[in-house]
Amino acid sequence: MPQQGAEQVRVEAPTEARNPRTTDIDQLSTVDVLRKINDEDALVPRAVAAVLEELAILVDAAVEAIRAGGRVHYVGAGTSGRLAVLDAAELVPTYNVPEDLFVSHHAGGAEALRTAAENVEDDTENGAAEIRESATGKDVVVGLAASGRTPYVLGALRAGRELGARTALISANPQAEGNALVDVALAVDTGPEVIAGSTRMKAGTAQKLILNAFSTAVMIKLGHTYSNFMVSMRATNAKLRGRTLRILQEATDADEQRCAEALAEADGDMKTALVTLLAEVSSAHASDALRASDGNVRKALAAL
């Protein structure tokens, strides 16, 4: 029951509607419950595909911002915020980027990551204050809200616009009020959830797909890959050290011993070792070429 005297809001969004395809889900066998869920999940990639043009605009805006010294800010609450925190955290070891290049703001802070916090997503001013304190006009502010109306997120987006930052909203509501507040609206029409209103399901899956594609595309455009290899990752454990050698072998056709030698000469820097092997130059020449080409392997090879 709602708390006596507490404000109530009726959210009008596709994710809140009752799904006509799952009305009997509580009467089905376990495997048929799972089939229903899987059938609905299969609709998500097609819905994401419908907003790829808008996503490309956001990727290019983020790349431009980062090259100009800006950062990307994710803002969300609940499932949306947790997915944003996960995406930002995984970029650091995968692409060896600074920890504050992608900044995640989650309503309620770290405590709310594990335990739901009451009313924090309704705090418009707190969302705005977090962006005012940490963002600049050079940045990109990306809001995530399945309904497209979460006050904490909209407050942050308004503050971002006031600062002159580029703004975007990722939602599952084509009619969301927040769409009009941003430069880029990615309204993924995932429709009603298997369980009405449970936006950790299809809406959350769509957000995860978009975040994966967005941040990966930004890293590719910034030169953190060569072909489809990760060449900026931090080899912080045995598995990743083994992966580094395997990538060098596959990318250069050199044997394992030569790759290990090149990596040692490069003080463990994978890009330098890669350019050394591909261009058949010294580690020092490879390092200089990479420095002159902003760390882009293909540009460094072309210069050599």
Question: Quick gist of this model?
Answer:
With about 300 residues, the protein is α/β, with parallel strands linked by helices. The chain has helices at about 30-40, 45-50, 50-65, 80-95, 110-115, 125-135, 150-165, 200-220, 240-250, 255-265, 270-280, 285-290, 295-304; strands at about 70-75, 100-105, 140-145, 165-170, 185, 225, 230. It contains 13 helices and seven strands.
Characterise this structure:
It is a single chain. The protein is of the alpha/beta class and 304 residues long. The protein folds into two domains: 30-34 and 41-221, Rossmann fold (3-Layer(aba) Sandwich); 226-303, Helicase, Ruva Protein, domain 3. Helix content is 50%, strand content 10%. The chain is built from 13 helices and seven strands. It has helices at residues 30-41, 44-49, 52-67, 78-95, 111-114, 124-134, 151-163, 202-221, 238-252, 256-265, 270-279, 283-292, 297-303, and strands at 72-76, 102-106, 140-144, 166-171, 184-187, 225-226, 229-230. A five-stranded parallel β-sheet has the order 2-1-3-4-5, sandwiched between helices. Strands 6-7 form a two-stranded antiparallel sheet. Helix 7 (151-163) links the parallel strand 3 and strand 4 (166-171). Helix 3 (52-67) packs across helix 8 (202-221), helix 6 runs parallel beside helix 7 (151-163) and helix 12 crosses helix 13. Mean pLDDT is 93; it is low at 1-5.
Number of domains: 2
Query: Numbering strands along the chain, what is their spatial order in the largest sheet?
Result: 2-1-3-4-5
Q: Architecture of the largest domain in CATH? A: 3-Layer(aba) Sandwich
What structural class should be given to the helix and strand makeup?
alpha/beta
Q: Which residues form runs of ≥5 with pLDDT under 50?
A: 1-5
The succession of helices and strands, N to C, reads HHHEHEHHEHEEHEEHHHHH
- Specify the oligomeric state: single chain
pLDDT average, as an integer? 93
Assigned CATH class of the largest domain: Alpha Beta
Main sheet characteristics? 5 strands, parallel
Tally of strands: 7
End-to-end CA span? 69 Å
Shape type: globular
